[in-house]
Amino acid sequence: MENLEIKNRNLEISFAKVEEELDRTQSELFAKQQTIIENEETIMKLKNELAARGRKRSGAADGNDNNEEPDMEFTTDLFKRELNEQFSNVRSLESQIDAKNRYIERLEKDKRIVDIVEQEKEALETKLKLMSDLQRHNTEMELQIIDLQQEKNKWLTFLEKDDRFSSPQDVVRELMNIRIEKTTLLSKIGQLEESLSSTTSQELEVSQDLQKLKDQVTDYHERLDKESQQRIRYQRQADIISKEAQMLRDQLKAYEAESVALENKSADIEKDNKITELETLVERYKQELKGLNDELVRKEGLVVQLNSPLRNKKRAAPDSEGSDSKLAEQLSSTVRKNRSLQNDLDKSEQKVAQLSHEINALQKQIASASESQQAKHRILELRDNPTSRHEAVKVSTLKALQKENDDLHAQLSNSGNQANLVPKSALDRIRDESKQLERTIQEQNKRMDRIKEVFAKKSLEFREAVYSLLGYRVDLLPNRKIRATSMFTTSDTDSFTFIPDPKAKNKFIGIENSPWAAEFENLITFWIKERQDIPCFLSALNLELYDRTTKAARF
Amino acid sequence: MNMLVTIDSEVKAYIKKIMGQLHKWLVSGKISKLIVAITSKDTGEVVERWQFDVQVLSGTVSAAESGSSESAKEPDHSKPQEEIQKEVQAIIRQITASVTFLPVLEGRCTFNVLVYADGDVQAPVEWVDSDAKTIKNAEQVQLRSFSTDKHKIDTLVAYSLGDA
């Protein structure tokens, strides 16, 4: 890049030079052409003259004086010579023009090359910019990569054991699958629990029904027993009654036989009555017996009817025997609770396993992190820090010096006759150095300014302090004179100027004459001329002036 | 003992830039050391190295990270401001007094500020990785330390003994 730039600059300079030269040669050419035209004109003129002379000569007689002929010849020779000279001149000029033209052509070619180089340079610059952008981008990317790497490491600690999963995607996919499965299972469990609860309630109902039916059955049994006992009783009664009837019939027969034997009329009627009475009684008994039998038959049929469905029901629910409805309910609720608790336990165990796995992974992570803590400390510095700036300056100076050295060597080995010239790099380096010197000068100036500032501030402060403590404004005048103005004077012109002692430093020998000084002549003679004590004079003067002020008059 | 304050605009800008970034890192507790290295301009060697170990006390970082949930539990042993300032003053006094035992800096020197940050720190583009700029055969002197509610700073100066 630098090379290109230098080359480019060189080319530009040479190009400018060439253009200048071209202009100059063109103007020269123009002038030369002008002179050629002029010369040709003179030639023409001379030719005309020659022709006229020839004509004149031919016109004149042969016997014309011979004096003229050598003269004419001489002039024609002269003309010819001059003509030849002019021709040669013209030819040389033409050749010069040719050479210049060729030179211009070459330069034009060079210019085209320079253009191309410039375009290339621009392209390279844009490329460079692009490169720096890319570099920045690259650093950002690196940071991102570090982040991602850490994330990956975290994943890796989890993934170590399981060979099934090679990447977080697998894990996440598996997780998704498991989640879906879980939701489906949960819904299934819900359904099942629902159905279970419904079946338990149904079961409860059924057992209640069963209980009721059992109660009924026992009831029926009891009734049946009662009925059968009654039947037996009835049977017996019937037997007894039939026996009684038999006996009565026998008695009747016996009685008839007796009556036949006895043949008593009055007794007959009684006897007949008695017989009919007994017969009706028998009849009534019979009816009653018949009714009882009917009833018995009916009861038996009922018992059969009751027994048959009961047996069916017993077969349907054979195992729920003896349990109370309340007890069953309690049991079912406990069973349900138990099941839910079991579920909870399972879930908790699963969770515990998961957590312990996670803990292991985290512990590993912590271990690795603490391990890498020492190694992975990043030491950072600001890109634009004083040290690196200084280093950069050093490096650039070194580069410039090396380049200069190389160039000098090259020059030395190439040619001895150009030893007076210096390569361009040397000039550049010296320019840089001068720039640096300028910078140091600036720094020095800055320092000077600062010092001056401080001095001005401090001296002002000092003067103010002197003014307020001693009552005099002190001004330094040229020639080491000092002017003191009292704080009690009314105008600025009322001041004393002290003349320095030319022999000793920082000593004053007298006061310059002024109308104001003349006013205090007595003080001056008393203190300065006689006692040569200026501080006491100044104090006395201040006291004197103070007495004159309005301030003193007030007290 | 005089303490001088710079008025150079470039140095001020540099320090300001550093302090802005340092503040961010300190708040997030990503920083463990702060180094001021004084380098010789001629040889490029580090001649003095001031090291400030920063310990961000635990609890503050977690509070900062977990948001407002922990912030209610302020530390009870809060230090009064005057005490902290006294400690800082003591350190500065010690640093200025260290001129008496530190070797005289020969030639012109320049300085640089390094930051030891955690590996996962987010560094802006202006910050680049650097070497540790340690001193070989260094003599080390531990100076005072000071602490606030949130940080503990240890100070250490290392310097080369020259040819000895």
TrEMBL record, chain A:
Its main location: nucleus. GO terms for cellular component: kinetochore; mitotic spindle; nuclear envelope. Keywords: Cell cycle, Cell division, Coiled coil, Mitosis, Nucleus. Residues 1-28, 90-154, 210-302, 398-454 form a coiled coil. Residues 330-343 have a biased composition (Polar residues). It comes from the Eukaryota. Transmembrane segments: none annotated. SUPFAM superfamilies: Mitotic arrest deficient-like 1, Mad1 (SSF75704). It is found in: Nucleus. Residues 309-349 are annotated as: Disordered. One of its GO terms (biological process) is cell division. Belongs to the MAD1 family. This is Spindle assembly checkpoint component MAD1.
Automatic annotation (TrEMBL), chain B:
It is found in: Nucleus. The keyword Transit peptide does not apply. Residues 64-83 are annotated as: Disordered. GO terms for biological process: cell division; mitotic spindle assembly checkpoint signaling. Keywords: Cell cycle, Cell division, Mitosis, Nucleus. GO terms for cellular component: cytoplasm; kinetochore; nucleoplasm. Belongs to the MAD2 family. This is Spindle checkpoint protein MAD2.
